[in-house]
Design brief:
Blueprint lengths: L8 E6 L5 E6 L6 E2 L6 H12 L9 H10 L1 H4 L3 H18 L12 H10 L5 H20 L26 H10 L2 H13 L3 H5 L6 E2 L2 E5 L6 E5 L2 H9 L18 H15 L8 H12 L4 H8 L3 H11 L5 H14 L3
Antiparallel strand pairs: 1-2, 2-3, 4-5, 5-6
Helix pairs in contact: 4-6, 5-6, 7-11, 8-10, 8-12, 12-13
InterPro entries: DNA_brk_join_enz, Integrase-like_cat_sf, Integrase_catalytic, Integrase_recombinase_N, Tyrosine_recombinase_XerCD
Protein name: Integrase
Family: Belongs to the 'phage' integrase family.
Amino acid sequence: MRVNLKGIHKVKVTLSSGEPKTYYYAYRGGPQIKAEPGTPDFVQQYQEAHSNLRQPRAGTFMSVIARYKAAPEFTKIAASTRRDYLRYIKLIEDEFADLPIAALADRRIRGDFKGWRDKFANTPRKADLAWTVLARILSFAKDRGIITSNPCERGGRLYVADRRDKIWTEQDIAAVLSVASEEIRLALILALWSGQRQGDLLRLPWSAYESPHIRLRQSKGGRRVVMPAGTPLRALLDTTQRRGPLILTNTLGRPWTSDGFRTSWAKACERAGIGDLTFHDLRGTAVVRLAIAGASVPQIAAVTGHSLKDVEAILDAHYLGRDIQLAEAAVLKLEARTKL
């Protein structure tokens, strides 16, 4: 007998091998169904997932969460961000679904929330993200007049990322270029000369490139950037076969998925013997390279799309604290201006 299962959410991806694959979820944001479609196990996992759905009761924190998930503050964010948020919303629901809304006015509730966050202290990044999502929900509740104050404001962070030494050297870059596929090499050079984020580069269309300029709108903050493509990048783009509307594609000429690109990038870095360096570190590396070349803070910001404040922060705290090349460039400038 055929069973009609409503609300099944399908996600089609292309694996790093190029093989297409479909993942099934009981509902959008729900648990993955790992059984084969059409089997009794598939139906059972679907029914179990739906039986575990919480029905929000009026006057509880669960009802606030339900309103947040239906509001533009949640539905309008990027799909990948929504998926990440849903993981942490599930943790929040498991712990605080039945919490009365009135309890959010009790000054002691912040301590309860902190205690919950501290359960994840062994994985500080997870703890901070869980706290961030909880604070966003409470901020939504405050904006909608459901509560009068947000007990999770200014919660601090457990995870501190120190990327001061995480700069791609010329040797690192050459190592990856020597072992990577043409598709990965193009992504590396594009990131190195543009200083843009991975997501924006994976979505960058050929129409954005009109030699000698690249025009794009950054997904984070919506900043519009118009940058000249450096000669090495321009030469590479001009000789690259256009296999579709996007500049960066996989070996099959198809658009990269985020997971597919990360997997292929990691494999190339592993073959090159690259350790604790990420694709995102290329964004900071681009800032450093421009600074070493003598570019001013406004000039760097015009290329990478950072704010002036962010460029200064990168150069001051995160990357250039002990950069020998910058020091050498400074001394050479001093030598050129003095006889002493």
